[in-house]
C-alpha cells in the first residue's frame, strides 16, 4: 500500500464535523500522515472540544504522524496572551467564542476595553496542555507529495525561506494563479473567494497549476474538507450530517497526473 497524506482544511471549532470526517478516512496509523492546516479555534460551537480531540489524537499517534499547523487565528490568540495585541479581540475574528467557551464569560465591550482582565481570565482558564499544544504548532510541513502551509507561499520561495507572517496571512493572487513549484496545499482563504477558473469542476476545492486550496468555507452549509495525497481522493462532511467522497482525475498538478497515468503513486 502507498503511504498517504491526509490534509484537513480550517476547522474553526467544528468538532462534530471533524470527528465525522476523520472517521471516514482510510488512514492507517503509523503509516499515513494527517496534516491539519490550522485555525482550529474561533467561530465554532465546540472549540475546546476540538482542541482536546486534536491534542489527544496527536499524543496517541506515532511521532510525526499527526501534524498541526499554526493558523492566523492561533497566532492572533498567542499574540493576545503574550503581548496584549488587540486584533484577536475584534468581533469579526470570532475570538469571543473561544473566550466564552474556555472561561464561561461573555467577551463584553467592557472586557475588550479592559483587556488585561480578559487576558488573565483566559490564561487562568485554558488547560496548560492546550496552550503548550498551540505554542508547538508548526508553520509548515513538507513530505514527498507536497508542501503544506496555512495561507500561501511567497512566489517560488520554500517555506523555510518565507516570512512567518506570509505563511499565516497572505492572500496573494499571483500565488493562486501562477504558482508552478512543488505542489502546495493551503487553507486560510475560503475557496469561494479564490479565482473562478481554479474552482470549476473541483468539488469545492481550488486547484490551479501547483496551488491547491482546501478551506471550503465556514457557514452552516459549508463542507469541512480532507484531501488524500497522492491519490487525490476528497472527503467532505457537512453540519447536517451528510458526507461526500470524490476521486479527482482532472485538473491535477503534473506530479499527480503523471502518477495516475502511470498507475502508481507519486
Description:
With 266 residues, the protein is of the alpha/beta class. The protein has ten helices and eleven strands. It folds into two domains: 5-71 and 139-262, Purple Acid Phosphatase, chain A, domain 2; 75-136, no CATH class. It has helices at 15-24, 47-60, 72-83, 95-103, 109-113, 115-125, 128-135, 164-169, 173-178, 254-262, and strands at residues 5-8, 33-36, 66-68, 140-142, 147-149, 184-186, 206-208, 211-213, 224-229, 233-237, 243-247. The protein has a six-stranded mixed beta sheet. A five-stranded mixed beta sheet has the order 4-5-6-8-7.
Question: How does the SSE layout of this entry go?
Answer:
Blueprint: E1 5-8, H1 15-24, E2 33-36, H2 47-60, E3 66-68, H3 72-83, H4 95-103, H5 109-113, H6 115-125, H7 128-135, E4 140-142, E5 147-149, H8 164-169, H9 173-178, E6 184-186, E7 206-208, E8 211-213, E9 224-229, E10 233-237, E11 243-247, H10 254-262
Parallel strand pairs: 1-2, 2-3, 5-6, 6-8
Antiparallel strand pairs: 1-9, 4-5, 7-8, 9-10, 10-11
Helix pairs in contact: 1-2
Brief digest:
The chain is of the alpha/beta class and 266 residues long. The chain has helices at 15-24, 47-60, 72-83, 95-103, 109-113, 115-125, 128-135, 164-169, 173-178, 254-262, and strands at residues 5-8, 33-36, 66-68, 140-142, 147-149, 184-186, 206-208, 211-213, 224-229, 233-237, 243-247. The two termini are 13 Å apart.
Amino acid at each position: 500500500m502507498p503511504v498517504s497524506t491526509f490534509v484537513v482544511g480550517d476547522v474553526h471549532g467544528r468538532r462534530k464535523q471533524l470527528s465525522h470526517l476523520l472517521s471516514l478516512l482510510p488512514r492507517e496509523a503509523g503509516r499515513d500522515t494527517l496534516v491539519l492546516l490550522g485555525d482550529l479555534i474561533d467561530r465554532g460551537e465546540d472549540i475546546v472540544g476540538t482542541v482536546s480531540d486534536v491534542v489527544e489524537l496527536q499524543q496517541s499517534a506515532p511521532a510525526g504522524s499527526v501534524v498541526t499547523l499554526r493558523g492566523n487565528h492561533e497566532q492572533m490568540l498567542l499574540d493576545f496572551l503574550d503581548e496584549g495585541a488587540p486584533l484577536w479581540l475584534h468581533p469579526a475574528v470570532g475570538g469571543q467564542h473561544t473566550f466564552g467557551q474556555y472561561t464561561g464569560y461573555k467577551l463584553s465591550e467592557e472586557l475588550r476595553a479592559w483587556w488585561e482582565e480578559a487576558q488573565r481570565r483566559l490564561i487562568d482558564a485554558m488547560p496548560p496542555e492546550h496552550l503548550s499544544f498551540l505554542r508547538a504548532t508548526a508553520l509548515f510541513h513538507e513530505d514527498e507529495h507536497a508542501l503544506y502551509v496555512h495561507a500561501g507561499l511567497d512566489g517560488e520561495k520554500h517555506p523555510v525561506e518565507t516570512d512567518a507572517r506570509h505563511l499565516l496571512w497572505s492572500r496573494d493572487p499571483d500565488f493562486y494563479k501562477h504558482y508552478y513549484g512543488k505542489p502546495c496545499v493551503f487553507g486560510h482563504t475560503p475557496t469561494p473567494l479564490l479565482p473562478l477558473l481554479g474552482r470549476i469542476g473541483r468539488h469545492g476545492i481550488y486547484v490551479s497549476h501547483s496551488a491547491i486550496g482546501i478551506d471550503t468555507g465556514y457557514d452552516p452549509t459549508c463542507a469541512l474538507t480532507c484531501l488524500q495525497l497522492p491519490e487525490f481522493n476528497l472527503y467532505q462532511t457537512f453540519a447536517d450530517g451528510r458526507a461526500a467522497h470524490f476521486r479527482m482525475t482532472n485538473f491535477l498538478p503534473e506530479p499527480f497526473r503523471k502518477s495516475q497515468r502511470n498507475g502508481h503513486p507519486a
